[in-house]
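Work Package 4 report. The design task specified in the project plan requires that, given a folded chain encoded as structure tokens, an amino acid be chosen for each position. We show below one input record used in the internal validation round.
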């Protein structure tokens, strides 16, 4: 291929990527719901196969799955709504305690800078750490999660079509392609189903354990917003690396603002950090292994890209989506080098 043709191909590729990104961003009001429905359909496909073996009619199976999904989405949405509303209402009563903590930090910085540099450094913490502003930001961020749970009807509508199409999809593939191409296509699809399902189910189990452990600690010591903290621990830990720090930050801040006894504060925070450490470094590697085989750098860029497109939900679905793209590239000769670069 001549250099001119290579340049044209590269330019066309760049334009195509920009165009796809623009379309994905414009369809942000509906695509996350569709992808969530596809992932849910993927999770329930073994259950569908088992129930069909026992002769359960497909309409009954779809209704049962829709009821399960609707109950789960409603429960999470309701817990998030109540928790966020409680945070917004109770934020003013914690402002004095926050100012006290920030004054202590400011005094420490001033004394340390005076000793080290001969002059004191002062920060305007009160302006940056106004709880009214913080709660407003938290409300906006959490709103992106609540919105998709709130749009249950759209998710359930998509899920109906996904479940109905799943049982005839393999037949359609075999009809549309020749035998060799049909076999190759079905092999790729089955691999995607297996790896993504393994990842999602493993994360569901791990995050449920994390959320329950978080709730037990918070309720045991009477920490405020325990239910919200547990739900955030469950949801945010779907976001690799970053989600762990965010999910820990909220309960730690609440503990610092609610309690004045430093031994109690240290005990609660230590338990929360210990749970995250054990789950993230002991339990998760044993359950997850290297199921999706993605490079950490690829995971980071996928979080940035899908987060930019679709906000918090984009970050939650970034890893499964990127894994699907990698598996597809592995089975296309020209794109195989890119798939190898994406691998861990």
């Amino acid at each position: 291929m001549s250099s001119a043709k290579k340049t044209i191909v590269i330019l066309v590729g760049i334009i195509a990527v920009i165009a796809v990104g623009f379309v994905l961003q414009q369809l942000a009001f509906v695509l996350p719901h569709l992808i969530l429905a596809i992932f849910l359909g993927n999770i329930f496909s073994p259950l569908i196969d088992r129930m069909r073996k026992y002769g359960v009619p497909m309409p009954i199976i779809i209704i049962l799955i829709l009821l399960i999904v609707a109950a789960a989405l409603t429960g999470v949405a309701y817990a998030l709504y109540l928790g966020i509303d409680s945070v917004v209402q109770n934020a003013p009563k914690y402002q004095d305690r926050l100012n006290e903590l920030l004054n202590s930090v400011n005094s420490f910085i001033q004394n340390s800078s005076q000793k080290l540099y001969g002059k004191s450094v002062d920060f305007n913490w009160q302006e940056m750490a106004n709880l009214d502003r913080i709660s407003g930001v938290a409300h906006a961020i959490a709103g992106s999660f609540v919105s998709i749970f709130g749009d249950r009807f759209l998710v359930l509508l998509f899920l109906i079509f996904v479940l109905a199409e799943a049982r005839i999809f393999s037949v359609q593939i075999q009809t549309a392609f020749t035998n060799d191409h049909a076999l190759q296509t079905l092999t790729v699809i089955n691999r995607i189903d297996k790896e993504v399902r393994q990842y999602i189910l493993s994360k569901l189990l791990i995050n449920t354990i994390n959320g329950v452990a978080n709730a037990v600690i918070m309720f045991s010591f009477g920490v405020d917003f325990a239910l919200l903290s547990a739900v955030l621990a469950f949801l945010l830990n779907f976001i690799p690396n970053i989600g762990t720090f965010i999910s820990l930050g909220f309960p730690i801040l609440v503990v610092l603002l609610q309690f004045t006894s430093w031994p109690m504060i240290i005990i609660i925070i230590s338990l929360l950090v210990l749970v995250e450490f054990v789950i993230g470094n002991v339990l998760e590697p044993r359950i997850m292994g290297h199921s999706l085989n993605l490079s950490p750098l690829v995971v980071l860029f996928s979080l940035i890209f899908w987060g930019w497109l679709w906000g918090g939900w984009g970050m939650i679905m970034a890893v499964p989506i990127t894994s699907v793209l990698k598996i597809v590239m592995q089975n296309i000769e020209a794109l195989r080098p890119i798939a190898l670069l994406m691998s861990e």
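The longest helix spans residues 179-220. Validation will be extended to a larger panel in the next phase.
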